[in-house]
């Protein structure tokens, strides 16, 4: 038995030492106290990967399901935020990468939670499961699953009292979603904008060549996606990773200034999408990337 545990630890240590492996181990080191962002919108993610909870009045709607290996931490965060994890009726996945669907399968099995994933990323699960990157997580809790509902471009779906407008914004993956909906504090409504994946890791030359995109079509798709949703009216920009919205700094500010809410900012969405647009053009003009 001892030697088997030693073998396991050897694997874990090798994973931590390997490039991105450290992001998929020691999840508790990224624990972040959950908090109310605005009205019926709560944050229950960690310091790196976002998870948001919307209290729809008829069950909880969760955006993403945390990093792989972070299932227990997410369940704990939901309790800590004052909710019962068994009330999570729906999970909307931003895209099909394993740092976002960590607890999805657990919720599906445990509570019968319905999982929503875009049609292109559901296809990726079936035809190219390796592109979900689940195999590098090194965590036995992780496995792919059949989503219950596939999301299509332009669809409008209802979750309790919350109605969501969906668009597909291919780029980071073929099936990244963007969506728009209202949250409320009971008196006022604010329009949320969510963009489900900004990372350029999947736009690097080596990555694109490996998946057979020899003309780097995905980069042009990404630019078009940013343009497609840039002019949407957004009063509250909901991040996919904490860095997108400087979430930890905003949370700290809110604690120090309880009468202010830095998440309410009608420019943040446009500014960040413009920033990404410029960054991507730079990458496309980089001779090492061509
Ligand atoms: Zn991703």
Automatic annotation (TrEMBL):
Molecular function via GO: hydrolase activity; metal ion binding
Required co-factors: Zn(2+)
Pfam families found in the cross-reference section: Lactamase_B (PF00753)
Keyword field: Hydrolase, Metal-binding, Zinc
Keyword Nucleotide-binding: no
Superkingdom of the organism of origin: Bacteria
Annotated Metallo-beta-lactamase domain residues: 47-241
Name used for this protein in its record: Metallo-beta-lactamase domain-containing protein
Biological source species: Blautia hydrogenotrophica (strain DSM 10507 / JCM 14656 / S5a33)
